[in-house]
């Protein structure tokens, strides 16, 4: 069996970035991958401005002195001229008047008879955000391959950039398999089950920002499977759930092998040991196991990696972890195991509570949890021992 890290490295080596780019408005760039380094076209701020409401003056200002207040400077106003030996009322975000270099907070002064007085020394530059304090013209704001988030969007927007070059969206074909599957809302019939993996994967892919170009439930019919796989090969990535094991009814496996190749990898992982990786007419193919939790975990670890690699992200499949203690003792099995957990507070301390039944067929465990905790193989963990926790929220879910 191969480790999760070995499989991820294999995917990164095997899959090549698409290399196709487009420009999008900055407000539509969250979740996209930057295709070129982005540099600042101007200083931010473009000129010194006040950090808070107060009084602008020329420093240094010695405690116990006072100055006459000669006017007001609002945010958005062109900078006024401040004569020596005077102060000006100023508001948060306003440009400093010409001749001023210091701002005294309004909480630190008294104003009487048109004069402002302060009782503590104020150094030159206090209360001022200097020109270029945030970014400098020509500075690299974000590197190529950066996955843009809301904070980064704010940084880009602060420089006045209206659009950014990004990798085009990855096109994914999503196929689930089996004559037994019903779509939600269809009348129930004996021997049938409602398709959960398909809608779940569709939601996960949508959260990843991909374009789902084909969505189909494949019947147990080799002719139909062949036709759907040929259509799916026009995408950048094919993802399936179920139908790729060595069973007699696993017709997708045969269909993939007829049009390309397929490898079955046994991964040193629970849940999600079986994973099929291959290609259909040259298009990368990932066949996920059929149990819902196994589908979910292998999507997070491997499909995300493939999508990120295709999009040119510099850290494909990024997996943020946080060390947190377990609320109860736990024993590890023969493989590393991602258990479904949620954070609880006990005596003011955040701990991880595990779902009582870790069966890989229980979708209720995923709906209950807010993340996954990694239990090493053969571990003997006591309550309070620390494990690696990954929050679903940190993965964009």
Question: In words, what does this structure look like?
Answer:
The chain is an alpha+beta fold and 397 residues long. The protein folds into 4 domains: 4-18 and 169-311, MoaB/Mog-like domain (Molybdenum Cofactor Biosythetic Enzyme, Chain A, 3-Layer(aba) Sandwich); 23-39 and 140-167, Molybdopterin biosynthesis moea protein, domain 2 (Alpha-Beta Complex), CATH 3.90.105.10; 49-129, Molybdopterin biosynthesis moea protein, domain 3 (Molybdopterin biosynthesis moeA protein, domain 3, Beta Complex); 322-395, Beta Barrel (Beta-clip), CATH 2.40.340. The protein has 7 helices and 27 strands. A hairpin with a 2-residue loop joins strand 23 (337-346) and strand 24 (349-354). The model has no long low-confidence stretch (mean pLDDT 93).
Determine the N-to-C terminus distance.
29 Å
Share of β-strand residues: 25-35%
Oligomer: single chain
Secondary structural class: alpha+beta
Q: Which percent range fits the helix content?
A: 10-25%
Q: What is the CA-based Rg, rounded?
A: 29 Å
Largest sheet: 6 strands, mixed
Number of domains as seen in the coordinates: 4
Shape: elongated
List key phrases describing it:
single chain; 397 residues; alpha+beta; Molybdenum Cofactor Biosythetic Enzyme, Chain A; Molybdopterin biosynthesis moea protein, domain 2; Molybdopterin biosynthesis moeA protein, domain 3; 4 domains; six-stranded mixed beta sheet; 7 helices; 27 strands; 19% helix; elongated
């Amino acid at each position: 069996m191969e480790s999760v890290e070995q499989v991820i490295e294999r995917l990164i080596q095997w899959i090549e970035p698409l290399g196709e780019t487009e420009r999008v408005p900055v407000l539509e760039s969250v979740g996209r991958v930057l295709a070129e380094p982005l540099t600042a076209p101007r200083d931010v701020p473009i000129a010194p401005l006040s950090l808070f409401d107060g009084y602008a003056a020329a420093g240094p200002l010695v405690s116990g002195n006072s100055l006459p207040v000669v006017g007001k400077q609002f945010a958005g106003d062109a900078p006024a001229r401040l004569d020596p030996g005077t102060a000006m009322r100023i508001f948060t975000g306003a440009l400093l008047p010409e001749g001023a270099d210091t701002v005294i907070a309004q909480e630190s002064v008294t104003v009487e008879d048109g004069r402002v007085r302060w009782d503590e020394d104020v150094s030159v530059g206090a209360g001022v955000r200097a020109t270029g304090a945030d970014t400098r013209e020509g500075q690299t704001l974000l590197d190529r391959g950066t996955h843009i988030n809301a904070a980064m969007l704010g940084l880009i927007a602060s420089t006045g950039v209206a659009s950014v070059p990004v990798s085009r969206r990855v096109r994914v074909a999503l196929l689930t398999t089996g004559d037994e599957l019903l779509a939600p809302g269809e009348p129930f019939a004996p021997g049938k089950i409602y398709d959960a993996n398909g809608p779940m994967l569709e939601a996960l892919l949508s959260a990843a920002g991909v374009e789902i170009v084909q969505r189909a439930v494949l019947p147990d019919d080799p002719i139909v499977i062949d036709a759907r796989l040929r259509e799916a090969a026009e995408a950048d990535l094919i993802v399936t759930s179920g139908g790729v094991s060595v069973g007699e009814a696993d017709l997708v496996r045969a269909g993939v092998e007829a049009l390309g190749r397929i490898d079955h990898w046994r991964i040193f992982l629970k849940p999600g040991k079986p994973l099929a990786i291959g290609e259909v007419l040259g298009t990368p193919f990932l066949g996920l196991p059929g149990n819902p939790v196994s589908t979910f975990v292998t999507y997070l670890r491997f499909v995300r990696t493939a999508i990120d690699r295709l999009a040119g992200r510099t850290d494909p499949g990024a997996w943020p972890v946080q060390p947190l203690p377990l609320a109860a003792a736990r024993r590890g099995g023969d493989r590393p195991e991602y258990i479904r957990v949620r954070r609880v507070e006990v005596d003011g301390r955040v701990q991880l509570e595990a779902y009582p039944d870790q069966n890989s067929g229980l979708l209720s465990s995923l709906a209950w949890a807010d993340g996954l905790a990694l239990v090493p193989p053969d571990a003997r963990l006591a309550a309070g021992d620390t494990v690696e926790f990954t929050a679903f929220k940190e993965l964009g879910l």
